[in-house]
Structure prediction request, 230 residues.
Amino acid sequence: GIGAAAAYGFAKAGATVVIGARRAEHVEKHAAAINDFGGKALGLRLDVTDESSWRHFVDEAITRFGRIDGAFNNAGIDQKPAVLDEVSLEERRDVFAVKVDGTFLGMKYQCKAMAEHGGAIVNHGSAIAELGIGALPAPCASQAAVIGLTKSAARAYGPKIRVNLLSTGAIMTPERVGTDMYSAELPIVPAKRPGRAEEVAAVAGWLLSDYASYQTGALVAVDGGGPSWA
Prediction:
């Protein structure tokens, strides 16, 4: 939901967007809708856990449009709630493959593509990295790793490439509409409501734009005032 909202938001702001996800038909549908309203978009299959898939994705974007100026790394994976001793190593590896390896590989090829002309990268993280949720040990650890990757890259590639992290709280994406998954947490959120995917996309757009030209290595919260989880 957040990735789609970002693609539409960036396109409406004038960017040419290349959208990647494992389901090619999904991103192709969104790209077609963006092109229909006058934007410019391309949808490509992308498995964020696979290095060759990332290489092809970035190469194709450059071949089609000449260069990459910004990137929003937003892939995620859910884990069934369970405390640490109930989580298998395989489950932990699946979470890290998507969130940590996926972000690492994305930045590897994005930074190579932006090395000469510069650019900006925004990684999507979560408030759980700092809050710690007892029943989500693998997601908490993976989100904390993304903070480290973001800060390391910001130091390594500045001033050419700005790298920041969006830390989100309770966000009501389309697949969660009609559920009560955030009902217990909302009383402790100052905003007293979940965020919308479009609100996250708007902050990502700001971080990618020249309006955030002095912002790098930062963790920017989009959480309604948080904390979002008890």
